[in-house]
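F.,

This is the one I mentioned.
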């Protein structure tokens, strides 16, 4: 059974995120579990998700305009201590974090840095050489 689509194709935050991830070599988008995922290279390893949720005792708290990313291990603890970041359902135990893109104080330069760190953890060496050479 296919997952229902859980995003709006015309979402302005998704459009902005697409403009951020579009600069990464070999990046492609694929809908999985009803949400856009951004993947690196031929193996298609995920480095970013658009939208997620936080598991609560009474169910899931949606973060439909959230970015899920794998933080740089050197920065992960500091990010976890920052109230803007949250542990997403299902991916949190594997070290992933989420941040909302629809808040009033979103720093898109920081978003680009978070996406860059996540991409660098999954991309093939050849893609990283291409990224650093561009």
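My design for it:
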């Amino acid at each position: 059974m296919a997952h229902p689509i859980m995003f709006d194709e015309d979402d302005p935050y998704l459009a902005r995120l697409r403009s951020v991830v579009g600069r990464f070599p070999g990046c492609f988008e694929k809908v999985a579990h009803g949400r856009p995922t951004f993947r690196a290279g031929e193996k298609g390893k995920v480095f970013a998700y658009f939208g997620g949720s936080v598991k609560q005792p009474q169910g899931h708290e949606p973060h439909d305009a959230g970015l899920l990313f794998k933080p740089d291990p050197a920065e992960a603890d500091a990010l976890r201590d920052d109230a803007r970041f949250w542990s997403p359902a299902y991916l949190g135990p594997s070290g992933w974090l989420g941040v909302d893109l629809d808040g009033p104080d979103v720093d898109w330069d920081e978003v680009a840095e978070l996406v860059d760190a996540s991409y660098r953890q999954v991309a093939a060496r050849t893609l990283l050489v291409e990224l650093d050479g561009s």
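Helices lie at 12-21, 76-80, 108-122, 125-133.

Talk soon.
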